[in-house]
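tool=predict chain=A
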Amino acid sequence: MAQLYPIEELLLYWVYRVQTEGVTLLLRRFKDAGYAVTPEQFGVLARLHREEGMNQTQLGKRMLKDRHNMTRILNLLEKGGYIERRPDSRDRRIFRIFLTESGKEIQEKLAPIVRRHLDELTEGAPGNDQKTTCQVLKKIVNNIQSCGHVMQASGKE
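tool=predict ok
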């Protein structure tokens, strides 16, 4: 029988812990500051702050969200008055997504909370360590994507 490492020695275990615990903490920080926005919704607001006017498909790809999840997030943001969908000038079936004034305001109010959050999470980890960690994680993502392409090509999914 193959022997696996103890789970606490696996890199991907720690990636998962950082993600889940970091998101949970950021959600609590948003709530404590009086904001009813999730980290997932903030990510969309921040992306739109940098790249307004994308359609839902483009935004979903950049945010690594499937169509269903992207629709759910956008519906909540629209209901909150943070985004608006505008018909594309060339193709009325496509809607472009823009921040409203409220969306710009809340994104700017939440950004310092996120910056402090990230600074606290990476405290004690020198910049070179962070850069190396990012490089390793990018390599793992590339490996995963390569495996996915091989599996799709061979029909073994």
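Residues 7-123 form a domain with the Arc Repressor Mutant, subunit A fold (CATH 1.10.10.10). The CA atoms of residues 45 and 107 lie 6 Å apart.
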